Structure formats: structure tokens, C-alpha cells
Amino acid sequence: MSGEALPLFRRALGDSWRSLVAWSLGVGAAIALYVPLFPSLGGNPDVQELLDSLPPELVNAIGYDQITTGAGYTQSTFYGLIGLMLLTIAATAWGTAAIAGDEETGSLELTLAHGVSRTQVVLERTAALAVRLGWLALLSALVVIALTDSAGLGIEPQNALAAAAAIFALTFLSGTLAIAVGGVTGRRVYATAAGAGIAVVAYALNAVANQGENVDWLHAWSPYHWAYANSPLAEGADWGGLGLLLGLSAVFLAIGLAAFSRRDLVT
Amino acid sequence: MDHAIETSGLTKHYGRVTALADVSLHVDTGSVFGVIGPNGAGKTTMMRLLLDIIRPSAGSARVLGRSPREGAQRLRRNIGFVPGDLRLEGRVTGRQLLRHYARISGPVAPRAIDTLAERLGLDLGKQVRTLSKGNKQKLGLVQAFMHDPALLVLDEPTSGLDPLVQQEFLTMVREAKQNGQTVFLSSHVLSEIQQAADSVAILREGRIVTISDVDSLRLTAVRRVRVGITGSSPDAVRRVLEEVPHLSELTVGDGDGVRVTARVEGEIDPFVKAIGVFRVSDLAVEEPDLEESVLRLYGAPKTHHSGGREPNDVR
Predict the structure, then answer these.
(1) How far is CA A82 from CA A77, A96, A128, A179, A181, in A?
(2) CB A267 to CB B85 under 8 A?
(3) Which of B54, B106, B56, B109 shows the shortest CA–CA distance to B80?
(4) Which spans in B86-184 are helix H?
């Protein structure tokens, strides 16, 4: 029986291993290119001088105010920016393909004509998304751990894993929202727009909220802030933030499931 | 359970468009039931309703004794389905794809997949996305038949198949029937329905026009015939053929022998017997035209012109 368990989960993973390899290379390469530059950028007094000469609004907006520490540098360059972008795109693409994409190509009709429920399709494919995204996040932590000594980052391994958990939870939100919108509408374009959109909004809210005390309250509405406010690379896991992110993902999935189970397949 | 499928007032609206209107029918367990009708008549809508892919606006259906919605995945394990718009993609081989579908349908006997693939002449080792339309259709048939489901729902199952494979498919349908399986299939090819089905429903614009057994449908089939006759005069030929019942649009030409064209409604036998008295050098009988046969069932005027294939011409 075990060989037959979770057929849709296994198919989703089997169908996407090529893209997972490509994303893994991209994520690995991004960190491996940025992190070794820390001694010459973040630790360099000239760079600090340059940052001091820039408008503080700009520096705050892109989160480069902590760039002089290894944790701050890795956060600003990878987890807060490039890595976030890569994982958001991957999560949105996979989340869109899970329901809306499969529905638009017409193959979902045949899958659902078999002995599977719609709930099972959504949950197994969400699990497959979580595994792939989790792997990319874990990979980023492993590369950081491998490079921390040579680049002088001074990041504790458990804190690297905490940052991986944060970026996973944050980008999983894009994936689950893309799945949910696919569940509600069946349309690829809406699913992609929603998955990418929530990431952009989260980032923008945080950047605006960084500008001063009178807009500080906006932080409360930014998933980006939930993930990174307590600097996981320096301080370790922020369970409250992770809980909030995963909880919101669960809400998205519940809404998507409810709508998907009730509606007609778009054909 | 006498009826594998039973619908009552089954209706489906899409906005203001009515795809299916008040369809009530029943399909006896162990029979082959055909649905014919022009494109957009509601055949596909009906099958999707039976599979719970879409939900009715009104009315109800019972499939193998269960409502599609409540029977859900357990019910669907007992159904084999070929969608009308079968689109298969992916970098997996046909065999891998079928194994996947086997995991999410009823239990598949060990050799079933290979046996079916051999019968249909399908190479299971090729990547699905590289397969031709016909070969994808064969994959669709294999996944529908492989678990010996109690009910087969087949939407235009032979589209894209070459004639030999179509014959093999008809054999598979007959065997399924002998097995006690029920087959519900749609087609726009009348001869296919005639060869395979016990009963037939004709659907047009979402409504059932008629449900009858196939034998009575055959009587209304309309065929075009062309005959070449040597050793007789046009007048002699004309005199004989004018006596044949249900023959119209007769033309008798003189050229390289006598050339005859005509339209025969219903049984072909009286016509064949009639031309038997001549020396026949050439004979062509066209497949009965579904559109024309359907039009006959609407009571279209007998002089209806052969060019008129639009159902809208009738009313």
C-alpha cells in the first residue's frame, strides 16, 4: 500500500524535478556570488561612508542599514532581496501550475475524473510545493553555513536555518495564494498576479514603514516584516512571525479549497 | 441496480446560455448507449455532469446508483472516462502516465495496460508530449478501459483514430458489454453508434430530440448512392429504380455506360435488389450522414437540399 500512497504528491514532484534542479542552481549561485563579497563590501569602511552619504530613506527602504555585520549583509543581499525574489518566483510559478495551470491546459479534468477528490488534489500538490520550496530554503542555509567562515560572516548554523524557515514561510505565502486563487478562479493569470502581488505588497509596505515613526504601524501589515523583523540570521527563529505566516497560508488554502470543491471546472 | 445512469430533468446553464435542458434518460446496466448530435448539442456537458466535473443547474443524475457529487471519488473509481477534449502533456512516457492514472483509479490487472496498448498499436515507451493526436487518443482509451470499470463514459472516443483502430475500439466496446460493463458513448459518426450501441439518444441544442433503439434509427438513415451500369439503356434503368421505395433525387446519365446517383432513405436492401438485375460496373454507397438523419427525425421537408447541413435550416 505504501507504494501507492500520495500519488498526486509524487507525480507533482516527479514532473518538476528538472525545474527544481534549475532553481537549486540559481539559489546556490546567487548566495555563492554575493556572500564572498562581504569582506570587501559590508566590512569595508569606504562602503559605510558611501552608505552614510546616501539618503537614509533609500538605505532604509532597501534594508541596507545593517550591512556592516555578516548577518545584516546576508539578510540585505540574499534573504531580503535576491533570494526572496527567486523563491517568490518559484513559489508563484509552482502554485499557479498546481491548479490554475493544470486546469487551463485541460489535464485537470482527466485527473479529477479519477478516484481523487478535489481536496486531495489541492493538499497533495500543496505538499509538493512545500517540499520543493523547503528544499530551496534549506539549500540556501546550507550554502551560508558552508561559506560563513571563509567570508567572515559569523552566522550561527541554527540562525541560518532560522532564516531559511523565515524565507520559506514568507514565499510559501505566495505559493498558497496562487493555489488558492487558482482554486477560486481556475485562471492562470489571476493566480500568478496574486502570488507575485502579495510579495510586492509585503515588500513595499515594509519599505514604506521603515521610513519613520509615523508610518511604523504599517509594519504590522507586512508579511515581510513578520518574517524578518527580529533578524533571524542574528537572533534566531521568530516563532510568532513564522506562526503568523503559516497561519495566513492555511487561511488561503482553506478559502481556495472551499471554493474549488464547490465550483465547476473551467473547461 | 437496473440503470447504470439515470438522469431526471438534468439542466445546465452557463450564464444565459443553456448547454443542457431538462434531459431525462436512463441507461440499462450492461447496455451500450450512444448519444449523437451536432457539436455544441450538449453531449460533453452531460458527460462532465456525470463525472462531477461540473454541477447541474437543475435536475439530478444517478450514476451506478449514486449521485455524482456524493459518490465522489469512490464512485469515479468505477468509471472509465475519455474526455472529449483530451489533452495530454508532459515529459513522462505513456507507461509512466498510465501507471499514475492506475494509482488513482480502480485496481488494474497486471497485464491490462500492455494488452490494451498492443491491441491499439500504441508505443508506451514514447514521451507523451511527442505523441500524435491519434496516439494520445489511444492513451486516453487505455486509461479508461484498463481497470475494467463498471461504467465507461466515452466522449467522441474515436476522434483522431484510423479506421483499423476504430474497428478494434468497437470490438473492445462489444467485449465490455459481454463483460457486463455499461458503455455510454457519444459520437458524431452515425455508423459507429449503429455498430456499437443498443440504444441511442439524439441531442440537439441541449435537448433530447428522441431516444430510440438503434434498429429504428437505421431506418431513417440517409445514404447517397452512385452506380455505374453497363449493357442497359438509361430509360430501362430509370423505369426500374423509380419503383424503389424511399428513393429520391434520382439522376440517370448516359456516358461511359449509365451513370446513376440517388438518395436512399432507410433500408438499403430494396435498392440493392433492384439494381441486381443489371450488370453493375461500379457501386458506391456513402456513409449515412448523421446531420441528414437527424434532420429527418425533426421532420425536415423531404426535398431538403443536400447542401443544407446546418441544423438551423430546418425551422
Answers:
(1) 6, 21, 23, 23, 25
(2) yes
(3) B106
(4) 94-103, 112-120, 133-145, 163-178
Q: Please check the confidence at residue B301 and state whether its pLDDT lies above 80.
A: no
- Between CA B313 and CA B303 the distance in angstroms is 13
- Specify the pLDDT at position A2: 42
Q: CA B258, B262, B265 angle in degrees (round to 5)?
A: 150
CB A80 within 8 A of CB A63: yes
* Chain length of chain B: 315
Distance between first and last Cα of chain A: 34
Residue B21 backbone dihedrals phi, psi, to 5 degrees: -125, 110
* Cα–Cα distance for residue pair A77/B116, rounded to 1 Å: 56
User: Which pTM value belongs to this model?
Assistant: 0.85
User: Residue A7 is nearest to which of B83, B85, B104, comparing CB atoms?
Assistant: B104
ipTM over 0.85: yes
- The predicted pLDDT at position B291 comes to 60
Task: For residue A58, give the amino acid letter.
Answer: L
CA distance B68 to A149: 61
Chain B touched by A1 (CB under 8 Å): no
Q: How far is A23 from chain B (nearest CA, A)?
A: 18
Collect all residues of chain A within an 8 Å Cβ-Cβ radius of residue B86. Answer: 106, 110
| Nearest CA-CA partner of A95 in A130, A119, A120 | A130
Distances (CA, A) of B55 to A101, A175, B11: 21, 28, 9
